[in-house]
Amino acid sequence: MISSSEASPPTSSSISSSTNASTEHDSSMNSGKKIDQIIERDCKYPDLGELLRGPTSGNYAKRVSQHEHDFVKENTSVIPPHLAEIIDNLQCRCFMGILPEINRAWVTIDHRLCMWDYTDGTDLNWYDDQDQILCCVGLVNPRPDIFGDHIKYLLILTTRISVSVLAVSITSGPYKDGTDDEITLIATDIAAPTNNVTFTQVVGTDQGRVFLVGDGQVFELDYLRQSTWFGRTNDLVARTVKPYSSYLPTYFRQNTLAEVESIAIDNERKVLYILTTQSGIEVYYLGPNGNEFTPVARNTDILNSARLACRQSSANMNADGFKIQSIHVISKAESNKIHLLAVTVTGFRLYFTHQKDALRTIQPLNVRGQPTSQQQPLPPNALELVHVRFPPTVEASGQGSALQGLQQSHLFGEVNAAYYDCGALLAAKKLDQRQDQKTVLIMTSLDLGDYSNQLMMTAHTPAQPNTLTTTTTNAIQRTTLVETSTTIVSDGNVYAIAEANPQKRGKRTINEITEHLSESPRRFLVLTDKGVTFFKKQRPVDILQQLLIDTQGDVMAHRREFDLFFERYGRIQSCAMCLDIICGNLHKTELVPVIRAAASLFFEFGGSPTAAAATSPSGNYFGRALGSNGTTFSGKHDGFILYFARLIAPVWKLKVFGDSADRKKNEERSKFQALLLKSQCELDSLKRFMDANPDFHVSASFADSRFQSADQGMLQILVNEQQSLHGLYLLLIHCIEAISFLDFLIDASIQEIVQWLPEQARNDVQNLTLDQMLSTPRGRVLTRELVIATINKYGAQHMHVGYDIVSDVLRRKCSSFFGPSDVAFYRGVENLQRAKKAEAEYERTSALSESLILFKEAADYLTEEKLVEICNDYAQQRFHVGCVELPLERAKKIDPQQQGLAYMEAKNPMGDARLHYYEGRMRCYQLVFNALAAVKTLAESKQLLPQSSMGGTTGSEPSSMTDPQVYVAQVFSTALSHKDKLFHYALYRWFQEKNMLSELLAVDTPYLIPYFKEYVDEVDGMEFLWQYYRRREQYYEAALYLEALATRPTNGLPLTKRLEHLAMAVVNASCRDAKRQQLQESTQLLQNLEHRVAVARIQLRLQQTLASRGGSENEQGARSLDSQLFDISDLFNKFARRYVVLDEILFIMKVTEQYDMVYLKEIWQAVITQNEKEATELQMSPFNSLKTRIIFLGDRLYPSPAAFPVDLIVDILEHYCFEHRRQVPAGYVVESLRAAGVPLDVLLDVYSVSIESKKPAWHSPDECDYLQHQLHYLKQLLG
């Protein structure tokens, strides 16, 4: 089956880069890397410790435009009339406060507690179970595992008699936004005596510890003590009282410790700070688990230290002016070096660190440029004042009717309430009597425009690509703290200040310029004697939208205001904000004019791309990417990518997959899913904007009519920007569709899907993020593994339906992220699964055939591992035709230009780049060969196979079976029918390796003959080709190859084999060849071959003769004769004559018909002499051996006059016999020649001529008588 096996990252050998889908994915990956860099740099904001330079600072920016307000008063929720009337008629003191966690304000009236919903002034609730005057009220987190999940908070009520605890249950309203929640107070048995202590503050930790401040001490309510028979034991533990203080006199006991005024808890760092009435601060460490209380440091000289720090100031400061009103924790989001802020009664801010020499120590950075201490905070070890910040001046705070006529640099009066978190400070200050005791609210926040400009100035400095992080870090290090200030007159006396969403305390984005319009802005609550007033902290995007609303979208009429805005925040940031306004309001019909105006701003104020200076090849904070030819993109381009990055940032690094299946993990995935869908909705709005403005991003070319008026240089710059935008647009689409895919996986049960992954992929997918899915090869591979695992999961659960669920979803929702090839592959997997589950043969056949069609469509998408798996599945299904066709299609996709074939035709040069394609094709071909070998094995086993395995019609009956030989022929025929030349060559080689040449002889393809001519060993090639032609009755060609095979001098064939090939050539040349029968060349070839055969036989006898003689020289000659064929002249001169092989000399003279009687006489005489020598060595009669020799030579040479002239031979032999007449019987010569085949009448003529001519050789009487006697014997034979 197709399992989700581990796949290596795609390479050019596994994924074709020539298709449009692959090009789009490459573009998407490159754009994804840009997005990743921008997200990383955009989330960096300088540590507060880096911004606070020197001992003091007081930089405040002035607002130029009347439309810019960082803090805006929204509305006031007045105290319910009935409650207000009661408060006005009170004769005793009451206490008031805010509980923003539950959207309630509270007031104590004697022993009664009243709470109301300040969001709408309703839901007035009274609690009057106490019989003592309530002093203080606080809301804290419960300890874990003590209360049920429905208890969200504990309400702490204090009197001078006891501390009691109410459990708070919250029932969400229909709007699920917290504005209509129902609050229920539940009485508990938790209570502790207070021993007449008046508490003024209740603070809780995230772990559920409860600390109280009263009578100058810090107490902890311990309600975890073990229960007894009499009920739960609770106690108030005095944490700031020394153990021995109870034994001291009262005077000394009161002076052992300074009185505690208030406390602040840092839940992130597990630190508790105590502010004393003498403006001293003490530090306590709560331990790594938050369950300790260890004193660490105390600083009692803060006032003097602050005064000394300000000694360079022109203002005349004294220590009393630095009396601390409140202390506030600085979150890790804002600083890792500054930990505490103290606000003085005059509005100064004192910054502290609880690490010794923190600002002088360079903290190491991790890979993302964040201090390592952010991950593992160090325990506190000191408390040092590091910086003093001056309060804003009247000029910096803006002008208001209540402030007219003030000439002082700072607002007189004392701060009586303050709130600080994540860069925003709200302080209530009562002005002196000269100002009629008015209370004003001083609000400060970071000046993001100043920060953006400082960063942009450093961003354009020349930088190399590998120094982008360094450039950004240096830019951050050069920025300073600049704030804006707003002063608003309060409606009444301020009792408390809080933030509307306390759950985000310490977790807010410091750089609010990165926040979206869709995110709720920060809202602050100011409790006065009139009610609760809401203030909204406006972000830059809020200011821009309000400016568009105020100007009614008339950009040109108010161009000055918009120019100032773009100048203040920079073109890139402003363009990003324009997109935020456009996309964030698409569904609001009432804001259509605002949307149009924002679009106009974007396109008109966004600028144009320019040519970059040669000295600035790359790099800036906001990703002002440069083209390959030095293009600096426009503000529109960079604003788009910046906004895009901010939209996708919340889910970019989100790890959706996990190895846990518990309830909390499922809840976490539900939150992930909601976050993914939210981001998808925002991305879809951006896509709608892009689709509505196609000219902005559609990939352009030089032929585009929009660019006809541009010069060549500017034309290239414009095209570069649009191509970059088009790549980003593709990534935008991929992001939307990838989120749809993740949403589908979550709905389909991720835990079950992950179980279908192989082990390695299962481990890797735990850390898989959206950015990896989009911008890394490994992420793409894991994404495909997940799809296959999902298919397998559904395939295992559904027998007849559901196989196309996954591909249908991908086709409908992810058609771009998963291109046509991807979807085709997944549909192929689904059909393969359907085939495995099919019960009917026709259904299995149809599914297999359909899967093959789909897999072939996706051939450029397949990895080698997947290709192997599919082929294995096909083999198990006895669908070997698929095992042949799919790898061949894959080979064509990975090498469409036939580079592998060119490499082979170039004779495999070393170091050639085409080797890569050749090897890729060979790996595909090997899968085909494996299938052919498997089929051959099946045939040898003689197993009947399903007819559908042959790839037959889908209408085949399930029971129909086919002969294995027929099945083998079908599969081999499929392989041989392909037109892949290189495959055919590889296939023929495979036939050779498997000793299947007899089967190959039956093959008829246009590639067979060229292969055996060019790419096979010469002997093997010719050996195959002559058989190939003879099988097809092309005897002439067969004879030619046999002749060439025999006559090649260096083919290594022995002489006997050469002679055998020549003989076969003669046979083939003698056969009738229909194509050659009318031509003379057949006859000429036959004659030539017959002559070659004759000569070859001489050579063979020469070789055998020399081999039989022995001796190194003869053996060398024999080896030479065995190595190649020689012509008749070489045989005569180099061998027969040289080695004195008399018989073959005579035979050569016969063949060549050379008439040299003198030399011939010498040869025959040498024959007699050689015979005598051999007979003597063998101790036998020379005449017997001579007769045998004459008979042998006669058989071979007679009647050739050139080699066997009878008259010459008779004359030589008779003279030899005459000399040995006593040893030779009568008629010896006649009988010998007669036996050699010479007719008697021919001998009679020879003898008669010899006697009648009276040759000089027979001149003596004895000789004549001897000759007459021989003639007489001859005549007797003739009778």
TrEMBL record:
Write out the biased-composition intervals (Low complexity): 1-22
* Superkingdom of this protein's organism: Eukaryota
What does the sequence similarity comment in the record state about its family? Belongs to the non-repetitive/WGA-negative nucleoporin family.
Pfam families (UniProt xref):
Nucleoporin_C, Nucleoporin_N
Where is the Nucleoporin Nup133/Nup155-like N-terminal domain positioned along the sequence? 70-532
Q: Could you identify this protein by its name?
A: Non-repetitive/WGA-negative nucleoporin C-terminal-domain-containing protein
Q: Which residues form a coiled coil?
A: 1072-1099
Supply one GO CC term from the record: nuclear pore inner ring
Query: What keywords would UniProt list here?
Result: Coiled coil, Nucleus, Transport
PANTHER family, sorted: NUCLEAR PORE COMPLEX PROTEIN NUP155
User: What organism is recorded for this protein?
Assistant: Phascolomyces articulosus
Q: Which GO terms describe its biological process?
A: protein import into nucleus; protein localization to nuclear inner membrane; RNA export from nucleus; transcription-dependent tethering of RNA polymerase II gene DNA at nuclear periphery
GO molecular-function terms, A-Z: structural constituent of nuclear pore
- Basic and acidic residues biased stretches: 23-33
Q: Where in the cell is it found?
A: Nucleus
List residues of the Nucleoporin Nup133/Nup155-like C-terminal domain. Answer: 634-1273
Main localization (coarse): nucleus
The UniProt record lists the keyword Protein transport:
no
Region Disordered: list its residue ranges. 1-33
